[in-house]
Amino acid sequence: MSAKVRKPPLVLGLVALVATPLVTRLLVHGDMPDTWGKFPPPKSPDVPGFNWLVFGLGVALALGILEFLRAPQRFGFAPPTAARDEHVPQVRFPPWCVPGALLAMASWALMWGELPEAAAPLVPFSFVPLWWGFILALDGVVYRRTGGLSLVATRPWTVLAIAATSCVSWYFYEYLNYFTRSNWYYPNDAIFSQCGYLVWFGLAFTTVLPSIFVVYQLLTTIAPLRTRFERGPKVELSRAAVQRLLGLGLASLAALVLWPAPLFPLLWLSPLLVLAAATSLAGAWTPFSAIRRGNWAPVVLIGLATALNYLVGEMWNFYSTPQNPNFWKYDVPYVNVLHVYEMPLLGYFGYLPFGMLCWVWWIHHARLFGLDPTIDVVAGAGPTLARRDDA
């Protein structure tokens, strides 16, 4: 990873990302959305209904993505090489693994109302321990599979920094959601005061990035899956091309504010273009940097990790009790059908670019504040964590 990272592109990219929807809205409409300032954001009354054409295009794109995952050789990838014979020290599960699993299971039962009625007052507070228990348990599995490499084991303070970044990044999405007709909303909005929701949701949002990263780390320990995407087409963009992508990202973000319904997929794509381009222009490594050498594993696996992570999360959400303030529903234009839990089936494909954005967001913020953004536990794509005895 380059040590020479320029901070001005990081600052300007972030300012542009936040300012573009606000300025666009004020210049065109002269006011803020009707739901502005209400938290959690309510359901929008004017979201378009189902549309066969948009749904058909979405299905075609989804089938293309699935075919890429199934047979990457059809998209210019060479067959994977034999998995490297890597010596992994034999270690036991770390001390935080089992307690994390127990915390997750107890919180899971609490959220679903499976514990005695005397525990009901704790239900509104089950979301955060459920996810942090899940994160700690899975981090322990990663630790075991890598012979002692995990974020909690080697860099626990970084976990806290990732959690803080996670909170900021998802609050940005809640901010952006005001300008896009509330693609998601929280119907259990009378449990806390508005201030209480802001505080509690802030704690809940700390789990987004850590949970995605730990699932990603686990996937990278599966050699056949990782090597499947390591020998793809090499793509290297000039600095001018990256600058054009930055401009495209900002223009598309402005367009999303103007036409939120027909351009709703840009909610997940435009911020990724802006932040990835700004981070690249700053000279920082991103998961897209590996594509220069034909290694697509980082971007593919972080996307898969996010989809898998939130397939579990959507299940937890769907069966939670009415006392769960974090319960969410979707009202996505044109394709709000064929739900798997609360999420429309096509919506799961939006998790792919969202996962890439989460990683880039962490790299951006880490570099901005002089932190080491390394999260990989398996060598091959970029910087890798070191065991304490190797550091």
UniProtKB/TrEMBL annotation:
Superkingdom assignment: Bacteria
TM region positions: 49-69, 93-112, 118-142, 154-173, 197-219, 240-261, 267-288, 295-312, 345-363
Signal peptide: none
Organism: Nannocystis exedens
Keywords carried by this UniProt record: Membrane, Transmembrane, Transmembrane helix
Keyword Membrane: yes
Protein name per its UniProtKB record: Small-conductance mechanosensitive channel
